[in-house]
Design a protein that fits this description.
Radius of gyration: 17 Å
Number of strands: 0
Order of helices and strands: HHHHHH
Helix content: 55-70%
Number of domains: 1
Number of helices: 6
Distance between the termini: 30 Å
């Protein structure tokens, strides 16, 4: 497979993984699985009120997570569905960056193309949307 085609394939798989992860955690989808994103929406009334996590109330996640959570609430508004949708879209650049990183590591290390399969790993599909 040509290098350009391989890159396109890896990015495509990353987007599919992102979509699957988003669907698995969607709070309105039947059979969804546990998600920290939804859990702390219901746990922390401050998020629903639009307060800034880590700055206006204690939030046990790193500062970048606090920023994404706050931005999701501000852009998504007071409804869980719109907050979740914004959170999902904000995670897409991280997925693309992860795919780029994997391509770069595989190419520089000479590890072989098999290393690129990690982008489709079940753990990334299950946990990727909020990690």
């Amino acid at each position: 497979m040509k290098r350009v085609h391989l890159h396109a394939f890896v990015y495509s798989v990353a987007v599919i993984s992102w979509l699957l992860s988003a669907a698995l955690h969607n709070p309105r989808m039947s059979g969804n699985i546990y998600s920290d994103i939804v859990y702390f929406w219901w746990r922390d009334v401050e998020i629903r009120l639009g307060l800034a996590p880590c700055f206006q109330f204690f939030f046990e996640y790193p500062p970048l997570s606090c920023g994404v959570t706050y931005l999701s609430r501000i852009l998504g508004g007071p409804l869980l569905e719109s907050y979740y949708s914004v959170f999902v879209y904000l995670s897409l650049p991280a997925y693309i960056l992860l795919a780029w990183s994997m391509i770069t590591i595989v190419e520089k290390s000479g590890a072989g193309r098999i290393g690129l399969l990690a982008i489709a790993s079940p753990s990334l599909v299950v946990y990727g949307i909020y990690n």
